[in-house]
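Whether sequence alone determines local backbone shape is best considered at the level of individual chains. When preparing material for the folding task, we compiled for one chain both its residues and its backbone structure tokens. No coordinates are needed to read the tokens, only the vocabulary itself. For completeness, the protein is quoted in full, as a sequence line and a line of structure tokens:
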Amino acid sequence: MTEDDRALIDRFLDMMAAEVGASPHTLAAYRNDLRRSVEDLGEQLVAATPRALSRLGAKWADLSTATVARRSAALRRFYGFLSDEGIRPDDPSGALPRPRVERALPRILGTTEVTEIFELLEDRASSGEPVAVRNLALFELLYGSGLRASELISLPRSALRKGQPFLILRGKGSKERMVPISDRAHAAVERWLELVPRDSPWMFPSGKKHLTRVRLFQIVREVAGVAGIAPERVSPHVLRHAFATHLLAGGADLRVLQSLLGHADIATTQIYTHVDSARLIDLVNSRHPLATGNR
């Protein structure tokens, strides 16, 4: 393994520990899978081409489906990290093997829990304290627009324009997407921007740069704990899942949801149909022409 690979894997695992709250056991498993992938590739991991990654399927032919799925998932997450950080201009992970396995359901929060969080945030923001005003704006964009953590912290100050009901941002894989912003989120962000130094290029500055993903993760957990929700249940990604699940429960179309979340493949979005399966079954029973008609 090259020094570059080793250093970037360490950075990736630091992010997994801070942002996702991965346990030591999970981090060790990721490290092992990435190390073995380097051995199977026979070349530098950080610079691997899609063609090189596509050959891993033959290398892994004798492994169990679960092992292949786990190694592919580790590599996808690693290359997604490299893309988000601007270390690679592309994400080659689409060439990796995709064995069919049952996907785990995402962790989500109930609407009552989300309400409790926002009641706390709004009460604190009413004091006008800058940190409280900032935190309300952060949560409004995480839950109200379903932004990824990396998309949120790197928002430029100019991303929000007066009278414009959406943000145009550069998301995963450097792809631009348009994200609607609710009236309440718009108001919360406008209020926060009044407190941001005029010469800052970032919407959420911190020192000479923008807020880090690690700090965002800490803020989200701190707020959850004060709201009486177990901190380990909440993260920026969990709020994104809540955004998607609650929209689907409210009747959002799956294709619309795919666009809002910035998913390249609708199969990724379809996980939410399992989360909200009861509502979808009820929808079929109540709306299908043959549900109530005579045959």
